[in-house]
Amino acid sequence: MVHELSQPPAPQDLLRPVARLLRPLVRLLIRSGVTFPILAELLRTLYVQVAAEALEREGARSDSRISLLTGVHRKEIRRLREQGEARTEVPAVVTVASQAIARWLGLPQYTDAAARPLPLPRTAPAGTPSFEALVASVTTDVRPRAVLDDWLSQGLVSLDADGRVVLKQGAFLPPPGSAEQLYYFTRNLRDHLAAASINVASPKPPFFERGLHYDRLPPELAARLEAQWRAAGQQMLVELNRQALAWLDASGEESPGTPTRRVNLGVYVYAEDEPPAAAAR
């Protein structure tokens, strides 16, 4: 389903918020060595691709129409079209780790009476929960021992005195700067930005988007709030994951060709120091 932006803001109203929105990303790009000419080429390519997709849906795609919408010269449009669109692939470890940990946290056979993840034996008879069965429920293309070694090296799990595998984190948290972290960086920010963009350009915002924020807090109170919000957010995600897995289990397998949808729920907490308040006169 494509959401049409029926009432987009005027350009002069949009540019200032966009400049503020992009500042953290530009800061990251500069620190990562991405210069402006590289980013400008990327933006030019994206402008052409997005405009072409919109015109394709209308059945009115042409280089002239794309040039009129984007301000990109037709020669550049032809050049960009000839070089093709880069493919985005999901790192294999993301699929295995995120799904396996979600099942470990959410399925009743892998959790105790208090809904905490159980320590799992590496192997067990068929029908008995084990780490091997957990991995096999997600994929048979990767050996459970290889997954275990990788998770041990990342600190996602540990082994207890009985040799059972113990989950140490309440989510799949990739190493900083890794391909896996950058995948979620892209997916989560892209989806939040997509939801917000559609909301500001729609007469009835279709996506749920809320924020809770406070300014001028004493540092100790800000730290207390941040800790509580982290815990509450984690608990909410665990509970919703458990509910989603139960519904999926009850619904059974969909027949081939059945329409599907992708859903993403995100939670974040951000805090920063503020400049000193101006002295009263």
Mean pLDDT over the residues: 89
Outline type: globular
Q: Structural class, from helix and strand content?
A: mainly alpha
Q: What proportion strand?
A: under 5%
Number of helices: 9
Q: Order of strands side by side in the largest beta sheet? A: 1-2
Low-confidence stretches: none
Topology order in helix (H) and strand (E) letters? HHHHHHHEEHH
N-C termini distance: 56 Å
Into which percent range does the helicity of residues fall?
A: 40-55%
- Counting DSSP E segments of at least 2 residues, the number of strands comes to 2
Radius of gyration of CA atoms, rounded to a whole number: 24 Å
The main sheet comes to:
2 strands, antiparallel
Structure summary:
With 281 residues, the protein is an all-alpha fold. The protein is built from nine helices and two strands. The longest helix has 33 residues, at 219-251.
